[in-house]
Amino acid sequence: MEAPQKAVVTTAAKQEKLLSKKARELAKMYNFPFVPRRKQPLADIINTWNLPVIIYGKIRLELYLEHNSPPFFFHPNTAALKVRKLVEAGTSPLTETGKIKQGDVIVDCTLGLGADSLLMAAAAGPEGKVTGIESSKLTALIVKEGLQHFPMPLQELQQAASRINVLHGRAETILSAMEKNSADIVYLDPMFNTPLSKASGIDPLRKLADYNPVTEELIQLAVKTASRGVVIKEHTKSPVFEKYGFTVKKRRGASFQYGFLTGKEGEG
After folding, report:
1. What is the CB neighbour count within 10 angstroms for residue 215?
2. Please, which residues bridge with residue 168 across strands?
């Protein structure tokens, strides 16, 4: 079933007067209907419009796909943990695999909640730049607004967030429009059909995610775009690494690995 690409926007019930103007502006920006809350239950709004609902709150946006399901919202918890480890150790499995350094230009083809984009933006430093591509319009909206407005727990995270440009669309389409060698690294993290853990925190994201596997077309476009190379994250036993020629430095006991495929700059 295809993920929804449209929603209605309203406010938190107790903050309608305070937030209506901003909620209207958000709805207009994304060409979504705005619905005055007027103490309406969430279930009534969803049933009336037959669309997901974005609730504009004081701290964050919350996306409800169904009235009885948990909301999807941006949170930097995983990113904060990764960036803390990066600051302490000076490296991480992802940044080491891609040899990411200060000033790098990076394309993340599978943005999701943005944790890896934030990590790579932190590693690339003040002169670096990350473009995060997300196929779900609703995920792209929630994460883009979160990166811009959510109060980050770390200064390094706040600075990294400012260096991420979120684009909604298919990775193949966006990479096709990019010039050859216009990025240093292209990153691929396809959604696993079998979750790595039973954590329910990203369940709403799974309902919006694109589960299509990586294709030869996507790999070729990534290699075309990346001067240094392509990094992919996959299950430890995934056949993708061998199929497309990724080099893997296996981490013992890890449920997933990072693979590296040399870009055009490294050929010959």
Report:
1. 12
2. 134
